[in-house]
Write a sequence for this structure.
């Protein structure tokens, strides 16, 4: 049984484990003040091409989302998210638990745009309602789509005009930036959004997300928020060492590119076999719509999620590839699919 | 510069890194539902000798404290803690951030007892005040002392009679249970307290605390609380693998015993050199009171915390040993201390 | 300029002010432990026909909603509400500020039913999502509709089967129970819902809502929650005296009936003039759809809310009547409407 | 049985009820946007002598405290209060329920000073602890003492130098400003503190506290916070009418002066009878220390609180006078005390 269920089924890229071993017995400071974390942060700043940003290393996506959002907002302010947004439906109300409403916008492609955000602002005119203040977007989105530079520029401009904070969930930022359709650079993000994070957990690390705070007014005292929310690891070096390894050359991007390539192979084959997709996804998550009978047969050998019922005979499934996905496994899956599809 | 600053200065025990490497490329379920986490939990249950307990693996002490306490209490209920309690002064208001007051009790030895708790109950008679509901104790305490079985039994009995939840912070539980003065077993804890945790981070793991919930009424839906508070790691196997390795033989206890032995050597030498201590500490943290001039000279070669000013010429320092403390470093420190002390 | 903007434009019914004056200089206990509050609670229990319920007097709807909901739920549990629900869009995130998500269900008539609630339960299967636990309904709804007994029985049964808490916002409960279409009694509510409140503010009181807690497990320590949320008035007698006056005879219902009658006159005339309505509303709020030009002319003499744009030429407005609405004002409004409508 | 138990035992001053009656049937805007509230706010600004302040009318002290403090602080920031502070022990953790720790300072006279606050700052140096940010003081204090202008200036200066927010709980501000020992004016407060409130509930109103926000950076969006915390009454006019009546001439101060005079008579007589006091209290709350046997006899005819056990034979009681305290009742109490004291 091979799993295409997610991009965190394996441990870490071997180079990361090696880096942990090499540094293991050195003594260093706790709580992220160690030399590795400091070096990793300097390296990330260099990669982003900006020195006037703050970077913090946290453990996971949910933790990063609620720690940042609760630090950035005052009590009456709300986040805005696409209905597919991870914070809305898949984090057990973590943001609301810090006291903030999330306003949901129905979309079909996982993405927000100025006109959708404007409608929310207009529907929240006074103090009887929350004050929409932070725009949460994900890149890649939760359904595999990505933001084009022009799209992000438009949102960014709108947010600046309306004094909104633009926050990008980058749990799968590697896959987004390495997509064949991507035209964004890391350095663009620092200009266009107020804060974003570079996901490590889903791209080869054991755990770890690098939060980048670009807007000055959001930087103050952020380590207090991290400590309060359980996000300062005593052995913070564990995060520093990993990001250092991922970014000291192109490992981070190589891993993401591999995941995308594997997903691309799957997409192409599924398309050629005559099946459609729930969303346009040029990244490491794809959502083919398949006959239920075919799905059942695939499930004998492969593990993946049933994403959505389409009609009585068809469902969309989610296939996720990662840095660790073996090309042979992809080939075998394709072969089986072709065999099963040809037969039907 | 050798550090006696804390017990999380190094990485993990080498066996733990090996275990991570061995399992690294196996695919498994996310969010703590992998085979390693399940095995680790079964193993811990066996070690504790109880099947009717729930065990969850979390990342760190602060996270475990606020996730558990906020899950256990209703909004108007408060925790009670010794003034030295970690949750009171060293977790950036993490428990209060979940909405709960912590009532502080002034103590000199870091420990609570029924009569102190009773005073708090009597001072909180009605709905104009919070309702004291959870008793937070630490073992070892934050100043190195430990609970004797008889003391814990008395607190336990009092809590049962008064319908209070007894919660033990076990960030340094290994050191407590391996103290030469200890008469408690892991199995006693499951009988005497409602919930406790077995600290991994400060005893050889990269990160990880095993929370044990003993009282049935506190068990329901705990994984929801973990997810909401950012405590469900996508690669939860990282925690499972470590606890499995620590407990599949006596590694956890061997590491704690080593730390205690090293602290014992330091204590003995400091005592023989004629210096006193801030607290009676039969564990891996000791708090000698030294002349400030001596401290300054020690600081040339050793890193440690100045804990408390005693008078204009003396301060208490904190020396912490760990599984990784090298006996040669201890010997060298002792030699230096004897040399400096003899000279004065 | 006469106002049909809401049902809290005037002060209190004169009998209430008289009652305040009569008792004014008597000394009594604070924080709702005075004789008036106790008598009012006993009287309400008798009116509801149940002694095994707890009743508390609070100041306003938002306060009652968030105090009750946060007292009833554990941190990971969520409320379910119709998209029109007051707690969702018109209380500035008050429920979320206590840490709880509200799951919105799109409806056209302001009302929930078992099948809608069931869909929410099915969409929230595990700990990665909040746990839906409390069903919030309003009677009358925010768009003037009311629950029939059979509808409420079905929801109640479904909630019991699924261990959900059923909570009814009764800010306009008087209008609901006095609607010509109503078949519910106060005593039915105590059987069918777990908690509800009897709104005073919008039915003749200066301020005040009587929260009725029917389910035993929700009763404990409720006064602690009230105090914590600012809902225990030092001079709680102010609430007790008002509810005593409203319920010592049929004043509460007489006032509601008057409001409904006035709204009925408006509805009938608007209907006869050939205009439709946004919702079926047999209560004190009606939502006629009128030409924008007509609306503009009505606004010269009357104050009311523009509720919703219907098309480029028409909007729904909201007309609200109350215990204080003067029949002459209603007649004059109707006459003007007929004049303006006839002309067009 | 006459009560000296508190200053909220009666209803409202008769002029307030009259004002409610006179305006009762006028239609006006809801939620504090009515003409009375607007006029009251303008009047208060004139009385304070400042136009650059924001004033909001809330219902009670606890509500005002937690609404303001949670609006003013970021999540990791804490309040500092004397151990006698109302928010610390008598508001059921209302401030902590909004996520903020309160740091307690042990004092004997209910008052803070720069040196005490400085110690707190020094004990909270980094992100492992909350960040002390708001200084909470009460005038009168909870044990009847008052701040002298020089004392307040010193605290104010210290807070400005250390970027702390200075907040004054004025639940009994009338009594403080009308104390024979007072040298502060309303206008001084607006200069010296960042926010304070003028208590109505305990000085003749049915309910109501006027919160004055002086520091610009604390003003933004405050009505959102009020709505979210249940502090925007639908019939906000109820608060406006009362403050208008209290401040359109000197009624507010006359009532406070009467309360103080009555307490002064009691103090003088108790002192002449040879008894001491727990605190120096030139206001409407006094805390005489009396023999327990004497207390028991007084309790046959008078209701008051036993405040604190002093020794096995003596206790401090609390006697509170108000705008409504009858001089005859005071005289009768004094006569009884003299009789009982003379006999012993």
């Amino acid at each position: 049984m091979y799993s295409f269920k997610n991009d965190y089924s394996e441990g870490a890229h071997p180079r990361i484990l090696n880096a942990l071993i090499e540094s293991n017995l050195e003594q260093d400071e706790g709580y992220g003040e160690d030399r590795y974390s400091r070096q990793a942060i300097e390296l990330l700043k260099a990669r982003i091409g900006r020195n006037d940003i703050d970077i913090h290393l946290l453990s996971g996506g949910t933790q990063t989302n609620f720690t940042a959002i609760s630090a950035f907002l005052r009590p009456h302010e709300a986040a805005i998210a696409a209905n597919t947004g991870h914070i809305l439906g898949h984090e057990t109300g973590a943001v609301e638990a810090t006291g903030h409403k999330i306003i949901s916008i129905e979309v079909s492609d996982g993405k927000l745009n100025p006109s959708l955000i404007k409608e929310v602002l207009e529907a929240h005119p006074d103090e009887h309602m929350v004050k929409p203040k932070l725009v949460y977007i994900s890149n890649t989105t939760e359904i595999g789509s990505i933001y084009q530079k022009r799209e992000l520029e438009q949102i960014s401009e709108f947010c600046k005009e309306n004094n909104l904070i633009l926050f990008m969930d980058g749990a799968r930022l590697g896959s987004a930036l390495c997509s064949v359709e991507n035209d964004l650079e890391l350095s663009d993000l620092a200009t266009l959004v107020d804060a974003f994070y570079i996901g490590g957990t889903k791209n080869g690390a054991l755990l770890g997300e690098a939060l980048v705070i670009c807007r000055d007014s959001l930087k103050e005292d952020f380590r207090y928020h991290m400590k309060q929310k359980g996000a300062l690891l005593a052995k913070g070096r564990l995060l520093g060492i990993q990001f250092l390894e991922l970014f000291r050359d192109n490992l981070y991007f190589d891993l993401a590119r591999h995941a995308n390539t594997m997903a691309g192979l799957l997409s192409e084959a599924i398309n050629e076999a005559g099946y459609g997709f729930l969303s346009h996804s040029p990244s490491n998550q794809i959502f083919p719509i398949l006959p239920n009978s075919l799905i059942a047969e695939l499930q004998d050998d492969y593990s993946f999620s049933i994403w959505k019922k389409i009609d009585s005979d068809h469902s969309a499934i989610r296939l996720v590839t990662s840095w660790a996905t073996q090309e042979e496994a992809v080939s075998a899956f394709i072969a089986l699919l072709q065999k099963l599809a040809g037969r039907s």
About this structure: Residues 8 and 276 of chain B are 26 Å apart (CA to CA). The first helix of chain B runs from residue 14 to 22. Chain B is about 40% helix and 15% strand. The two ends of chain B are 23 Å apart (CA to CA).
